[in-house]
Design goal:
The protein is α/β, with parallel strands linked by helices. Helix content is 37%, strand content 22%. The protein binds alpha-D-glucopyranose.
Length: 476
């Protein structure tokens, strides 16, 4: 740990609050950075976070945030968790809600105020304490570089990481006044986006460096297909943009020490015991068949349309299919109907960390047919647990999973079944190839064993982030 202080901000951090991969990265990346810098992680203290369990304590600092002619009381909290310092911002409007961003049908109306308050509270901290860097993640933290722009006395440099460009934090123009943001920022080189206010644009325009979570996604977001309307704006700022692939926490996700497994394992024999136990647990017939799993949010992004279109034919093949996840009602309903019809499809709604670990351990294939994927963590976890990924070659999936046809046992790359087209025919032929490969068990085993030994940790990517920080140091 060095003397350089970093404030790492995210709207969700595992294990305090999680809706997706952002929370996992906000847990694991700061830990690697903390070996070089002195990192504090900061997030909102949502009401559902158990203060007692985590030993979260008041820091005795209450202050008022003045924003758009209103005054909002704020309080700071702190805890140590697994040798890291976590700081929390509490303001009732931001934190006293049942959901992070809103019920599944849509976001809260006042998310602009809620997350602006988080940014203003961080500004207040930076006025009082010296941090050399602030590391921001996604739109919920993207206003801070704009707020810092007006504070010439604060020497904090900002690095902004985009985890998903599809969520930009877009609000009506009238938000400007309630957020206390000067009209001078409402133009197309700044916050304005088709007549509305766009938080993400503030982060892109005013941060000192921008990263996104894989090199391929960094290129993709400069194109109309993946740029979500910001491709031109990102092209303009591309000199400060880099792609750094995410890592996984290989201590938390380690098949040989995983306490959530019936039998932790180092090799394929041990994995077989997990498969048997799991299929018994869910009472799946014909357990000798290859097991294909899907774990993820039921959203368009994750390729649910093509997955659902492919499922009836997949179910007619000699395999078992297990699905775990939650999301949009139309996908729930379609999956439920299919699971009722085919007894080799097993479906579980919800988010269940322990069950997901048992599924990684039990499965032979991990399906991730995403339409776009900034990075994706699950495919790396799957490879680490000896489950071969079947993925579409987009974003981080293209960077982390290479097609088995090019298998090279001497490389440090992970291999799986890779397909290109975003339609269910392509997905079905990938599944057919997967099952054929499973039939050639020696070859299949060789690749799976190789994947299990690959390094998917933050070791290399952590160094790349440090390089970004050091570049900023030199510039100042
Ligand atoms: C978002 C992206 C996912 C990425 C994660 C962490 O959830 O959709 O691809 O892995 O953020 O960066």
């Amino acid at each position: 740990m060095g003397d350089t202080r970093v404030l790492f901000a995210a709207s969700e951090v595992y294990p305090f609050a999680k809706s997706g991969g952002l929370a996992d990265v906000a847990y694991s990346l700061p830990r690697v950075l903390n070996e070089t810098y002195d990192v504090d992680v900061i997030m909102p203290l949502y009401q559902f976070i158990d203060r007692e369990v985590f030993g979260i304590q008041e820091m005795g600092e209450t202050f008022d945030i003045r924003m758009g002619g209103m005054t909002y009381p704020a309080m700071l909290y702190i805890c140590e968790y697994e040798y890291m310092t976590y700081r929390f911002v509490y303001t009732p409007l931001l934190c006293d809600r049942a959901f992070l961003y809103g019920p599944p049908q849509g976001g809260y109306e006042d998310n602009d105020i809620r997350f602006a308050l988080f940014n203003y509270a961080m500004l207040e901290i930076l006025k009082r304490e010296k941090y050399e860097f602030v590391h921001l993640n996604d739109w919920q933290t993207a206003l801070l570089p704009l707020l810092l722009e007006n504070e010439l006395k604060i020497a904090t440099k900002s690095l902004f990481t985009i985890h998903n460009l599809a969520y930009q934090g877009i609000f009506e123009k009238k938000a400007l006044a309630r957020l206390g943001i000067d009209e001078k920022y409402f133009h197309m080189d700044c916050l304005e986006f088709y007549g509305q206010v766009n938080f993400m644009k503030a982060g892109i325009a005013f941060s000192d460096r921008i990263t996104t979570v894989s090199p391929t996604y960094a290129k993709e977001i400069l194109t109309p297909e993946f740029g979500c309307g910001l491709e031109g704006f990102l092209q303009y700022h591309s000199s400060k943009l880099t792609g750094i692939v995410n890592g996984i926490d290989t201590e938390h996700f380690s098949p040989s020490t995983d306490k959530m497994l019936v039998t932790p394992y180092k090799d394929l024999r041990g994995k077989g015991a997990n498969k048997n136990a799991f299929l018994k647990e869910i009472k799946m017939k014909e357990p000798q068949r290859p097991l294909i799993i899907f774990i993820g949010r039921f959203t368009w992004q994750k390729g649910l349309e093509i997955f659902i279109d492919a499922l009836p034919e997949m179910a007619s093949m000699a395999c078992n299919i297990v699905v775990l996840g939650d999301g949009e009602a139309k996908y729930h309903d379609a999956l439920e109907a299919l699971a009722k019809k085919h007894d080799n499809i097993y479906l579980e709604f919800g988010y269940d960390e322990a069950l997901s670990h048992r599924m990684y351990a039990a499965s032979d294939f991990f399906l991730m047919p995403s339409l776009f994927e900034p990075c994706g963590l699950a495919q790396m976890i799957a490879m680490h647990y000896g489950s071969m990924p079947i993925v579409r070659s987009v974003g981080g999936l293209a960077d982390t999973v290479h097609d088995h046809a090019a298998f090279d046992s001497k490389s440090q790359k992970g291999y799986g079944i890779v397909f290109a087209e975003a339609d269910h025919h392509a997905l079905l032929s990938a599944v057919t190839n997967a099952l054929a490969l499973y039939g050639m068990i020696t070859q299949y085993n060789q690749i799976v064993k190789h994947n299990m030994l690959c390094d998917f940790s933050w070791r290399e990517s952590g160094k790349l982030y440090i390089k970004e920080y050091e570049t900023l140091k030199e510039e100042s």
